[in-house]
Amino acid sequence: DEIYSQILIAQTADTLLTLEQISASFVICKLEDDKVAVSARSLGEVNVQIIMERMAGGGHLTNAATQLEDTTIEDTELLLKDIIDEYYGEEGESE
Q1: With the CA atoms of 51, 42, 66 and 71 taken in that order, what torsion angle do they form, in degrees rounded to the nearest 10?
Q2: What is the side-by-side order of every strand in the sheet holding 63-68?
Q3: DSSP three-state, residue 88
Q4: For 1-95, where are the E strands, in sequence order?
């Protein structure tokens, strides 16, 4: 139930990319206005823009985000996992 700023979750997503064997990071949190935010970062191997666009967000290949209303962190996590699974399924089909 903690509320964090968008700047902090963006910084957290950036920091996670410094860990070994991490090529993309997604940080989910609750914002002050009862929205749930997702901050996504990648080193270029994963197009986080496409993933965030599927969650009504946007951005760039390595830096993207979204804000969702009328949802929970848990439901957002499940949705994100489903979209990531779809993304990897589609990536495999194009090879």
Answers
A1: 70
A2: 24-30, 36-42, 63-68, 58-60
A3: helix
A4: 24-30, 36-42, 58-60, 63-68
CA distances from 2 to 36, 62, 69, 75 (A): 11, 27, 17, 16
3-state secondary structure of 28: strand
The alpha carbon torsion through 10, 12, 16, 17 (nearest 10 deg) reads 30
pLDDT at 91 over 90: no
Q: Is the pTM for the entire model greater than 0.85?
A: yes
CB-based contact 23:43 (threshold 8 Å): yes
pLDDT digits (tens, 9 = 90+) for 33-66: 889 999 999 999 999 999 999 999 999 999 999 9
Percent pLDDT > 90 in the chain is 84
